[in-house]
Amino acid sequence: MSSASRTPGSTPGSTSAGSCVSTSTSTSPDAGPPAPGGFVVRRIPQTAPRVISADEAWHGEQPYAQDALALDFFGARGDEDFGRQPTRSSLLPDPALVVGRLAQAVIEVVSGQRPAPQLIRHTAPTVYSVIARQAMVAARRRTPGPQRAAVVRRVRVCEPADGIVEACAVVVSHGRVRALALRLEGLDGRWLLTALTIG
Question: Potential cystine with 157: which of 61, 167, 188, 194 (Cβ 3.0-4.6 Å)?
Fold first, then answer.
């Protein structure tokens, strides 16, 4: 029997699970002194990154990234590529016709004569939420029976800048004369209603 002790059920030349010993007699710079029986204990290599300060990470010559991809928080914004793209007035239809149709549609929606979702594509989200809320109120107050259709009487349009239209419209709805102030912007190849005031 050899000098090395054996555990029950073990075979010659085998080691127990989890053993970190080697029977090699070669030496290396990180190896410790040989243990009795010809075993050599080796040190676990250091794999953790070097600890640095926040100042060194921020002001270092090269950006520091640890176990993650480096992100550029100061580069170009995604809105420039994926946001709405401005469109010049020369590439859009006549704003006077668009204002007249939008004013007609808006006054019909707020009067309960037209469903609000028909304006989703032509209005900004903030404007649409206001129109839809007024349409709900008008639907609750609407009395049964025939209703006189709203009519746009007059439209005035001005263009303070390329791709920007500010307009006002005079409409008659349910026997009342009302005024609308609108702001349209050329975005993504069409006029979009971005501001609305109903008097």
Answer: 167
